[in-house]
Amino acid sequence: MNGGVLNPPRPNGTDQFYAELSVNPLPVSELMGRESLFAAVPLDWHVVLTDVKKSTQTLSNGMHHLVNLVATGSIIAALNIARRADTRVPFFFGGDGATLIVPDSLVAPILNALKQHQENTRRNFRLELRVGSVSVADIHANGQTVMIAKASMSEAYTIPVVLGQGLQYAEKVIKGEGFMMSAHEPAETALNLDGMECRWDSIKPPEDAQEVLCLLVTIKNSRKDDVQNTQRQAAIYSEVLKRMDKIFGPPEARNPIAAQRLRLKPTLGRINREMRARLGRFDFGYLIENWLRTLIGFIYLRFVKEGQNYLRGIAQLSDTLMIDGRINTVIAGTAKQRRQLVESLDQMESAGEIHYGLYACAESVMSCYVRDRRDEHIHFIDGIGGGFTMAATVLKNKLGRA
Q1: Which of 33, 40, 48, 188 could form a disulfide with 238 if both were Cys (CB 3.0 to 4.6 A apart)?
Q2: Of 339, 127, 329, whose CA–CA distance to 247 is shortest?
Q3: Burial 298-331, CB ≥16 within 10 A → b, else e
Q4: Which of 6-15, 231-240, 299-308, 375-384 comes out lowest in average pLDDT?
Q5: Least trusted range by pLDDT, from 10-19, 82-91, 181-190
Q6: Domain coverage including residue 371
Q7: Which of 76, 98, 268 minimizes the C-alpha distance to 167?
Q8: Quick check: is 10 in a domain?
Q9: Among the residues of 142-248, which ranges form H helices?
């Protein structure tokens, strides 16, 4: 089905919690060290997670674009519901899945839409998409916290930043054997993936860079209580980001997306995947119409002023840094900078502060949520070949040996 929330939920007292959070103008490296600027997520909110099962095996078969598309669809399904309910929810793209934090009034319609996305994914792509949720109250009852702030990445784009290990706890629960979701009231919701696009060719790094790096960083476990752990996490992540700034420059200097490198790739196969994800079925009219639109897009993006502005805006509105209790980032740099980064992170790892996973590749890949090409578009970035998933595999191996 394609549509929206048939009966938008009525907002309750905490629905506007995230929308009303102030945006912090501080650099993220400084914000991370200011725990007082973070607010506790209300206990009646929920962590919603999706994850493509056996994604590493799927990526080895050259299906990274499809895995990214399914993960992107998870976010778009939720954002379209939140948009219609006139609220905002924080989200985190993980390459092979997504994490969202949503108010109680939206959890049932979002889960219902994601179950439809799950079925479409299974039927059309033979991929198993895990879907689950854990309440923030349950996270707190198990000794974990979820603290959140908003960081300004540019004049047009802000990101959520999370302290605490609550989202990682929820991930462990949802991915655990025998996980059963808490019961929610049934919701009349139609899956709405309007705005989802995945038509870009793989993207070479900017001219002054040689490679794209996908990096995941987490703090090493501590026996301290959760308050002390959160303070320690804030200080350590602030130091990691400052070291990245010193090696690569500020976030805009290490952005892997440059307007001059962007190329549309209007293959029928790619539009067919997008169509099946959005509609759940084959539609010849959709296929031909969007193939023709993409061909026309070459002219629009290169020769029409509005199209050129859209290209320039993509870098500013690209989701290249996510902090969800871990640091997840995709950056561009040189081999020399990578060696400096590895040396610096190895020092912190040897000192018992962090574990990290790093994956280097030649290009990045991008999937998009486009509501309006002027200022309402978000671009989800991963390294080619499933960079985030590969970095996560390195990190998991380290954690398994710890």
Answers
A1: 33
A2: 339
A3: eebbeeeeebeebbebbbbbbbbbbbbbbbbbbb
A4: 6-15
A5: 181-190
A6: 23-176+192-401
A7: 98
A8: no
A9: 166-174, 226-248
